[in-house]
Write a structure and sequence with these properties.
Elements (H helix, E strand, L loop, with lengths): L2 H14 L3 H21 L6 H25 L2 H15 L8 H14 L8 H12 L5 H12 L1
Length: about 150
């Protein structure tokens, strides 16, 4: 089942169960997917493009969560936290930190990186491998640790 089909089914369920928060998030994601399709000039997005949109939406919400927390807006923090939980359902299973460390080690070895100057090379090689399965900030931190 494609992501769009899954979203449509979940949207119907959310409507029947009167789950306003879930319905709102699903509609936002569907709109983002449609906008991406228009931008790319295609009616059907690849799985990778869908994943890109989902991770972008999740990142935006995590950034908002951080800003609202710093501003002391607990009402908005709770709302954004709920949206993040709903979005995470549609992402592939996240890699554990141990698995991520192994991937980082393999990639550092593959590109023959030896210092922090090779950081860009390592990140460019590793991100396609973990796209949607790991947070970019965590990957960055692990690569830095490995190169130091």
């Amino acid at each position: 089942m494609s992501l769009l089909e899954r979203l449509n089914n979940d949207m119907k369920t959310a409507m029947k169960n009167k789950e306003k928060d879930r319905l709102s998030v699903i509609r936002m994601v569907k709109a983002a997917l449609q906008n991406e399709g228009i931008k790319l000039g295609t009616s059907e997005l690849t799985e990778e493009a869908e994943l890109t949109v989902l991770t972008r939406e999740l990142k935006q919400r995590k950034d908002s969560l951080r800003e609202f927390s710093n501003a002391g807006r607990e009402d908005l923090v709770n709302k954004i936290q709920t949206e993040i939980e709903i979005l995470e359902v549609y992402l592939p299973e996240q890699l554990s930190e141990e698995d991520l460390v192994e991937i980082v080690k393999e990639t550092v070895h593959e590109v023959n990186a030896s210092s922090k100057a090779d950081m860009g090379k390592v990140m460019a090689a590793i991100m396609p491998k973990v796209k949607g399965k790991a947070d970019g900030g965590l990957v960055n931190k692990l690569v830095q640790q490995q190169l130091s």
